[in-house]
Write a sequence for this structure.
């Protein structure tokens, strides 16, 4: 074929022609313009922590390591209600992807929700960067337990503030935001998806919002002093395009839950609000 082509190009009556260049067509790939953040339903550890606080105990008695904590019966009910809400809002009306914390309570929540809403599971990614905040030596301690057993840590926390205080072996809020910034970098690489559904934890919801909105310590702590992330709640962020800023459309929405079924459980050990 190469010899034939060369012969034709030099043959009488077949003048050589310059190759025709196809016009370049600029195609903007579909980008994520919505992030829906879901906190897991009430867990058995949430219940145990509330009970320990009420009893004035130092230690929260749970039967599982943090990654394996399951939902409570109420948490399962909340997840079913969340699933119907996702279906009613048309979560899958546009191309959607699902990113989930590897922790059992988050995996259970979204699994129950999708089944209850009659929704097909979107392309799913389990990402360890979406795990709950790690509290190191303060894990499984009530606020009173921290004061009684680690008074030096309590003093450090009061001095540094929640944003920067890193318990021994644990993470500060700034640490969690750092790993979430890498998550957002990956979000920018997604193609063919308009909506990202994330199932994770209260700290992840709060701090992912802070990363998207570029909140500094003062702004974030002022917001956190007035807002908590309820179990099985929905938080939505939106932007007009890849280079546009994110805006908060809705925070910790629980209209799908009966009033008696709304639980916040914001007291993950040292996570009491700081004024």
């Amino acid at each position: 074929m190469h010899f034939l082509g060369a012969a034709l190009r030099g043959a009488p009556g077949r003048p050589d022609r310059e190759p025709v260049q196809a016009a370049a067509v600029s195609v903007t790939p579909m980008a994520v313009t919505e992030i829906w953040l879901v906190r897991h339903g009430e867990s058995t550890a949430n219940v145990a922590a509330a009970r320990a606080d009420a009893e004035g105990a130092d230690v929260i008695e749970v039967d599982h390591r943090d990654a394996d904590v399951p939902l409570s019966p109420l948490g399962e009910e909340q997840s079913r209600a969340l699933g119907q809400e996702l279906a009613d809002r048309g979560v899958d009306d546009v191309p959607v992807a699902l990113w989930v914390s590897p922790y059992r309570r988050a995996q259970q929540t979204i699994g129950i929700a999708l089944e209850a809403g009659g929704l097909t599971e979107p392309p799913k990614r389990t990402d360890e960067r979406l795990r709950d905040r790690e509290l190191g030596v303060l894990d499984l301690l009530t606020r009173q337990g921290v004061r009684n057993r680690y008074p030096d840590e309590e003093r450090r926390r009061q001095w540094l503030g929640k944003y920067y205080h890193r318990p021994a072996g644990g993470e500060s809020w700034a640490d969690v935001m750092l790993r979430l910034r890498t998550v957002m970098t990956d979000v920018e690489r997604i193609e063919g998806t308009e909506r990202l559904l994330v199932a994770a934890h209260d700290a992840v919801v709060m701090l992912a919002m802070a990363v998207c909105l570029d909140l500094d310590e003062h702004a974030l702590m002022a917001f956190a002093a007035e807002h908590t992330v309820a179990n099985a709640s929905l938080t939505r962020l939106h932007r007009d395009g890849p280079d546009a800023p994110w805006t908060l459309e809705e925070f910790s929405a629980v209209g799908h839950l009966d009033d008696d079924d709304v639980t916040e459980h914001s007291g993950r050990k040292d996570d009491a609000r700081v004024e």
About this structure: The CA atoms of residues 210 and 220 lie 7 Å apart. The two ends are 79 Å apart (CA to CA). Confidence is low (pLDDT under 50) at residues 1-12, 267-275.
